[in-house]
Amino acid sequence: MGAQAENALENWERVTPGTTEPYCQIADFVECNGQEILVGNGRGRMALSVALRKAIPGDTISLAQGIYNVTDLEIDKSIALRGEGKVTLRSDRSVRKGLFVTRRGVSLLVDGLIFEGASSQDRNGAGIRHQGSHLVVLNSVFHRNEDGILATADGSGDLIIRNSRFLGNGYGDGYSHGIYVQKIKTLTVTDSLFSGTKVGHHIKSMAGRTFVQTSQFDDHGGMTSYSIEVAGGGDFEVSKCHFQRDGNAGNNTVIFYSANRGGVPGRLRITSNSVVSEKQNTIFFKNKTRVPAVMEGNHLYNRDSGKIRLHVGPAIDQTGTN
What we know:
Blueprint: H1 3-10, H2 12-15, H3 23-26, E1 36-39, H4 48-54, E2 60-69, E3 73-75, E4 79-90, E5 98-102, E6 108-116, E7 126-130, E8 135-138, E9 141-143, E10 147-152, E11 158-162, E12 165-167, E13 179-183, E14 186-190, E15 193-195, E16 203-205, E17 209-213, E18 216-218, E19 228-230, E20 234-239, E21 242-245, E22 253-257, E23 265-271, E24 274-277, E25 283-287, E26 293-296, E27 298-302, E28 309-312, E29 315-316, E30 320-321
Parallel strand pairs: 1-2, 2-4, 3-5, 4-6, 5-7, 6-8, 6-9, 7-10, 8-11, 9-12, 10-13, 11-14, 12-15, 13-16, 14-17, 15-18, 16-19, 17-20, 18-21, 19-22, 20-23, 21-24, 22-25, 23-26, 24-27, 25-28, 26-29, 27-30
């Protein structure tokens, strides 16, 4: 895991400044006038398991600063969970699916939580295993899980990630990732950092649409494969992101797009990104469909003696610098 990622984890207050926008304006499944349930030690607070039983759809559960031992904690109603200070969720044993597991049809918002160290016998232990509808992740950290987020949802909901950190995730066999979306309507990632994913991809998406904006991708310490792989077609946009390709990265391609896992190719835009590579024969964007990608304003720099290729596969409006 790179120095940038370690600093992001240590400087918690700077990683997660908190969200001032009311949750009900971000996610319509959270009630503006819903009750707040307090979790932790102290007067007026209760255990997390009790709070989850007491909550009704639309409520917010606030966790006091501390470390919580959770294993396959089932979220069976649409709620928000937020941290007060530095709140770390981890398990003292192997999980079956993840630290948090959402039920089918359930939506979840999390804000200011650290999900750490999830592992399972099938090597896909997730910080959050999302099987429900909508998932909103704000100001949170996913640290050294086998999958940061594994979404095997019902395909009707959206996954929204803002200002979050994915650090050192992946089992190391190439089948687990920072974010692994198998089925979701739309994946949107903004203002987030991915660093040191072990052998797998920072983001692997088979969502109907995938949008990644104003985020950073750092391969150092992980032998990361693709920074982003979209394998199910659909609309795809990457804009205003920075990519750092390590010389030991597991693949010389930074972004890979295909419809190999089903789906239909959609609108493709790769614009205003920057790439610094230490990998020989780097390819910034590989398009395995017949739909041309719009590529504008991308800036490429290779610290190795070779040049970066802007793209392989159909593309138009090409601009870039080596």
